[in-house]
Design a protein that fits this description.
The complex is a heterodimer of chains A (273) and B (221). Chain A has 273 residues and is an alpha+beta fold. Chain A contains two helices and 16 strands. Chain B is α+β, with helices and mostly antiparallel strands. Helix content of chain B is 16%, strand content 34%. The two termini of chain B are 44 Å apart. The chains are: A alpha+beta (273), B alpha+beta (221).
């Protein structure tokens, strides 16, 4: 009887140990290279201190600035508050803040739809972007109603609420973007602006500020290094052979001529496209 | 100038009592500006609340402010020609290319060199990629003799703004095609380098393709 009881207990103990080990192993690994935690300040005209557990972690944090908090990945920042700089006036009471342990994350201090300061954690998609494309992410972090985001005269993202976002992979180049209140064409509240779509990079654009206070503006963050290289470089369909005799060359030439028109026209189309 | 004067106020205020003497008289400010008061107030406020030891782990990441009206940065000059005396390439035309629908790098015909338009212009930060055929449709390609280029050889890239720039081959390598190190060849960061690519190795008559890539790495002179 005792034997029957012991076996599950041992299994349980092992299972617990396995769990503990994986937690212990996961923690340090996650706090290293593969994680990026950025903090962005998206509240215009407001200098703040970021306070953790009574101590100032970021003094004099100004609108538009970004701070890299990757060192805190996986940790809990206790009693996190955003205070007006040099004062005890709490602008945002975040409470205990569990910093994500992995991924690419941007934490944004911004105004909610009603103009109240808040904090939103956005996850950045760093999955590979196809060659010749770039990724555009647009985030609504402004004191404003739902918006439509137009790109190149197309309503790309509609009814985006405060805290919401839209994302698309686009041909590298530039696009013209503008933001309007949802469902209407005017007034244009941001833009139109030319945005660079850089091959292999993500451009994250944040609409911040307040519509009512006429402080609407844009913050931008670039995330590079997740593009895709060509899969191969094929630079020859004909053997180079110093010993090749004239007959073989003529044969090759004949074969090549048959296919040449097709290849050439296909290539022309590609270059034009 | 007001800014500079204000700075003197802040610095001079404290030592004034400790270090009396006519020698220090010139430091005494002539004006007191409102910004000084604000600066001092804020400093006092911060002193009341201790700086957390965590502060040392925060890394400033610059400003994300984006000027909607600013013109986009102009792209640099585009390469349009290549001259490599050692292997008889005389101002061979360079065209910009992208990728084929199947993901392979687009390569122009036998007489032209492709500059991968998603790589930096030659001489800019990162690795610029120029590729051309060794042989195409029965005729020699521009890079027919690339494998003969010696390390140390110099050559010239011509740009669309009329300028030219010298490069020097620093390394030559041959890779099985599937082992071409794209991380290095297509790096968008790091010191400026230029990579010349063609084919080499055995010719596979079944695939009408070479087994290897021949790569010359070069640096600006």
């Amino acid at each position: 009887m005792t034997g029957l009881l012991e076996i599950p207990l041992v299994q349980k103990a092992l299972a617990i140990l396995v769990v503990l080990f994986s937690v212990v192993l996961a923690a340090p690994a996650s706090a290293q290279d593969d994680v990026t935690i950025m903090l962005a300040h998206g509240i215009p005209d407001t200098v703040v201190d970021v306070v953790v557990d009574g101590g100032v972690v970021i003094p004099g944090f100004e609108f538009g600035d970004m701070e890299d908090l990757s060192a805190f990945a996986g940790q809990t920042l206790t009693a996190l508050t955003v205070n007006l700089a040099g004062t005890d006036t709490v602008a945002i009471d975040v409470g205990d803040f569990a910093v994500p342990a992995e991924g690419n994350v941007t934490v944004v201090a911004h105004l909610d739809a009603d103009g109240v300061p808040t904090v939103t954690v956005f996850e950045n998609d760093t999955s590979p972007i196809a060659a010749a494309e770039g990724r555009l992410v647009v985030r609504h972090a402004a004191a404003a109603p739902q918006v439509d985001i137009w790109a190149n005269d197309v309503a790309a993202f509609t009814n985006v609420p405060n805290g919401g976002e839209g994302q698309a992979d686009l041909a590298a180049g530039t696009i013209s973007a503008q933001v309007v209140p949802a469902g209407v064409l005017e007034p244009v509240v941001i833009g139109p602006a030319e945005l660079p779509i850089t091959e292999g990079e993500t451009l994250v654009v944040y609409a911040v500020g307040s519509l009512e206070d006429e402080t609407l503006t844009v913050l931008a963050q670039s995330i590079a290094g997740h593009g895709t290289a060509p899969s191969a470089v094929n630079t020859g369909n004909t053997p180079v052979d110093n010993g090749t005799d004239a007959t073989a060359l003529l044969l090759l030439g004949a074969v090549a001529l048959v296919g040449f028109g097709m290849v050439a026209s296909r290539r022309g189309a590609l270059v034009q496209g | 100038m007001d800014e500079a004067g204000s700075g003197v106020v802040a610095v001079a205020a404290a030592p004034e009592a400790d270090l009396p003497g006519p020698d220090l008289e010139p430091i005494v400010p002539t004006t007191t500006e409102a910004p000084v008061v604000r600066t001092l107030d804020r400093a006092v406020g911060r002193d009341e609340r201790p700086l957390s030891p965590l502060a040392a782990q925060v890394v400033p990441a610059g400003s994300a402010l984006f000027d909607l009206d600013a013109p986009l940065p102009a792209s640099g000059p585009v390469p349009i020609g290549l001259t490599i005396d050692g292997i008889d390439i005389v101002d061979a035309p360079i065209v910009d290319v992208g990728v084929e629908p199947n993901g392979e790098m687009e390569i122009p015909g036998a007489t032209e060199i492709g500059w991968y338009r998603w790589s930096p212009t030659p001489g800019a930060d990162g690795s610029s990629v120029l590729a051309a055929h060794i042989a195409w449709n029965g005729r020699d390609g521009v890079f027919r003799d690339l494998d003969d280029l010696e390390v140390g050889a110099r050559f010239t890239v011509h740009y669309d703004d009329g300028t030219a720039r010298g490069f020097m081959a620093v390394e030559k390598a041959q890779y099985a095609k599937e082992e071409l190190p794209f991380d290095r060849v297509c790096s968008k960061v790091g010191e400026p380098s230029l990579v010349l690519i063609t084919c080499g190795g055995d010719f596979n008559r079944g695939l009408n393709s070479y087994d290897d890539n021949v790569v010359v790495y070069a640096l600006p002179v």
